[in-house]
Fold each of these.
Amino acid sequence: MTKKKIAILTGGGDAPGLNAVIYTLVRACKSLMDCEVIGYKFGYRGLYTNDFMPLNRSTTSGILHKGGSILYNSNKDNLFNYTVEENGVMIQKDVSDIAIENMKKADVHALVVLGGDGTLTSARDFARKGVNVIGVPKTIDNDLSATEITFGFDTAVNIVTDNIGKLHTTAESHHRVLIVEVMGRSAGWIALHAGIAGSADVILIPEIEYSLQGIVDKVNERKTHGKPFTIVAVTEGARCKEGGASIGRIVEDSPDAIRFGGIAQKIAHQLEPLVENEVRHCVLGHIQRGGDTSAFDRVLSARYGVKAAEMIRDGHFGTMVTLRDNTMGFVPLEEVVGGGDMGETSAGGAKTVDPNGELVRVAKAMGISFADE
Ligand code: F6P
């Protein structure tokens, strides 16, 4: 009897933990069902171009700890609205049937898709066309409401915390205000967690509009306490009461085209005339998604990977793996995706920080300002 074949792809941006899910899934598919596994490269693009590699003990050896994805990532390849050239003209077209044909030719029994809202929306659409699909949610932003915690978040928080610590020593030496911009899009989870863990003095998140005066007040208050330096952690998508959010760039061929960016520089520029200190900024950028995966994320990814394999074994297709009440489970993809684009943020609706929630209260009780008063 021929072995069942399972395919994996990693869509959207990379997140630490993707390789750990691949590593675990390959081994669990073997031990639970004696399946063969292949991996399509560059997300859905590989499904269309039929570009895949064998995934086995040997090809996945030594990847558990590594960030990125050995299958590579792409957040621009929605096969239901794909850019192709026809008669010398670039047009948008549904090429999903070609992908399905490729999977049939490769004898793929089930497809496991690791990604955010856009990737999982396509997963749902493939499920509607009869493909046996299982989704595994990923994003460093931790903004998916369908699951308690996504892999990659803990690693990003550790990196940001570590860097806030580094900024402390230099800010203190120069008596500067240092503003550090972190990822998260419209969710402030990374800034909030790393800001608390790294002892930021001000945390600015999209869920709580800030005012410049609020930052000035904190800088001055610290001075009266003998602390002539201040660390501000700001989410890239934070919004100023007086001026809104800061758009960094538009990635035209990405369906979720808006990239936030530039807020730290903007605040530094506006703040400097209002305080006595020199004000500098620092953008952590993709460093937050790079390097090795944290121990917590490796364990979390392993749990996601094994659960996905169990779901294949039990035939729970058209679903996404979840973690709720610290228990692995699953929900129908139909319930968790909504966007219909390739944005990578919000499976099941965005999970954002509650401005009156416990963590904000904890931060405030610690004396951290949100510059909102
Ligand atoms: O959603 C994850 C994320 O890292 C966001 O925090 C960030 O805004 C975005 O992706 C950056 O995307 P890209 O790497 O495509 O610029």
Amino acid sequence: MKKWTFAVSVLGLTMGTALAGTTLANSETLNIYNWSDYIAEDTIEKFTKATGIEVNYDVYDSNEVLEAKMLAGSSGYDLVVPTSDFLMRQAAAGAYQPLDKSKLPNLKNMDPKLMATAAAYDEGNKNAVIYMWGTTGIGVNNAKVKERLGADFALDSWNLIFDEAVISKLADCGVSILDAPTEMIPAAMNYLGLDPRSTNKDDLAKGAALLEKIRPHVRYFHSSQYINDLANGDTCVSVGWSGDIVQAQTRATEAENGVDIAYIIPKEGALQWFDMMAIPVDAPNPDAAHKFINFVMDAQITADITNYVAYANANTASMALVDDAIKNDTGIFPTQETLDKLWASKVYGSKTDRISTRLWTKVKTGH
Ligand code: N2P
């Protein structure tokens, strides 16, 4: 029986190779690893049409998951999209190759101010280009939350999550938070009046202690499931990423299910992050990766992505092509007043990373 299975799988492999040898002889492959719910429906198809390059597209919803692959090496990916603080740490470990800017003429479309901001994590924008950016705030189901807190309760604060008296009233309709220690612990620290960018271990421990305190009222920790759950009314409050919450809002509107979702950037401030396209040092096809990065930086392609996923981009040329509803949504493109309240991610060294990871395990598991 075993032998038979083996024979079949060998045959399968041989056939696969033969097929690849005949029909796909001239086709190139690009292996992309990107965040889930983060690209327009037709981006990949258009890229293949324009270049003849076939794309394998895998997704993740956690910087930690991506980081483990990048640090282990030989991931097989040609293009990945770490957040800037993670990019910096991984680049320092030699995980990425410098971009060949002669292959990226569309860099001219990028906003110099935002690229300068990104350069704080990647000197001279050597290794990466901004894909999309956003904030980490709170999605709420207006009706369900008002029902529980009262119509006059201001929905503008992290108290929805971090005040036990408030979150305990919301627990029954479902609260989720991100499974992202480097975002959740600083948010808790900020609520306590501490610097969210502090790497002092006592500060981190205080943030984690607050999370442990509210943890009994949290239904789950997850970084992508919340889009559908919020949209369907299965949860009523989620700490999540700007575009994801707006996607939940759109899905509910399209489903005409009566669920009304709002995205809140809390008045105490929130994290502003930048996700960066980068090429692993051992990418099998760096040339195709450059082609993809340049393709994404096309004004229309970036506008299509922003219009579809509701994340802000850093492509000045695309803005004329971004839908007004998206452009004018201050949850996606915050006002200057809100921007001034946002904090930037802090790059954790290995010691802080260990502390944060250990604290997070305790928050999630209780020990
Ligand atoms: C997309 C999430 C991307 C934002 N679902 C995380 N940096």
